[in-house]
Structures are given as C-alpha cells and as structure tokens.
Design goal:
With 174 residues, this protein is mostly helical. It has five helices and no strands. The model has no long low-confidence stretch (mean pLDDT 85).
Length: 174
Amino acid sequence: MVTPAAAPTDSGVSASLEAMVAQQEALQKNLETASNKLAAARVGEILEKDQQSEKLEIIEQPTIPQEPIKPNRPKVAALALLAALMAGVGLVFVVELLDKAIRRSSDIFGVVDSKLIISIPYILTTAEVRRRKRRIVFLVVGFAIVTIGVLIGAYFFLPPLDLMIAKARVGLFR
C-alpha cells in the first residue's frame, strides 16, 4: 500500500530523474559538439603543418597592365646619366688632386728660388690684333645670320602664334 506521503515523493523523484536525464542528454550533446570541434581543429593543425590547407580564392580577375610598372626607363636613363656625370667629375677631381704639374707662380716658387723668376709681359702684334677683330666681326655676323634664319624658318614652318595658343588651350598639343 502506498501511503499518501509517499505519493508526492515518487512524483518529485520522477521529475528530478527526468531533469537529470535531460541534463545528461544536453551534456552528451555538448560533449559531442566539443569532440567534433576538437577533431576539426586537429585536422586543420595537421593540414597546416603539412602546408596543405592553403586555399586560393579569386576575388577579382586580374587585368593586363596598360603601362609597365618596372623598369621606369626614363628614370633609369636619368639615373645612369647622373651617375656617369658624377663619376666623370669625381675622376677629374682625383686626377687633378694627384697631378703635381706646375700651374701657378706659387707652384714655381715652391720649386725654384723667387729671386730667379721674372715675368715677361705679352706683346701683341698688329696681325694678332687684326685677327682678333676679324674673329669678333665673323662671330657677330654669324650670330645675326643664324638668328635671321631661325626667325624666317619659324615664320614659314610654324603656324601663327594665336593659333598655337588656341590649340594649347584646347589641349591638342598633348
């Protein structure tokens, strides 16, 4: 026979048993989920160690460049020219520094006693004076002829200045 006090105890025990079973099932699911995650992590770690896990995903198709990025030929040419000029100047500097030739009166005074040295002034002849004047006249006449030739060429071969300015404003000379 079941006593009235025992009946509520059986229902409490069965409810607590059902709660414990549900808790056990939830814990079992959590354990399975954690085990699956651990297995996936171990597989990922193994693949990463073997470098097999690299994935390549194409986001955007590559395009062929319109202009080359490297080498920048004008920059390379300018740097080569600059390096050549610097090397030339450096070479001239070193050669002049190491050259022991006599160039100034102070160099001569370092070699010979100053009492033994006198200076003789240069005397111009009339032929040298005429040659110098003729050379100056030829240079002035030649410069005038070249200037007139350039101006005539510009007049006949170049468009008018106002037309060139209008084209430059529109951007046709690019």
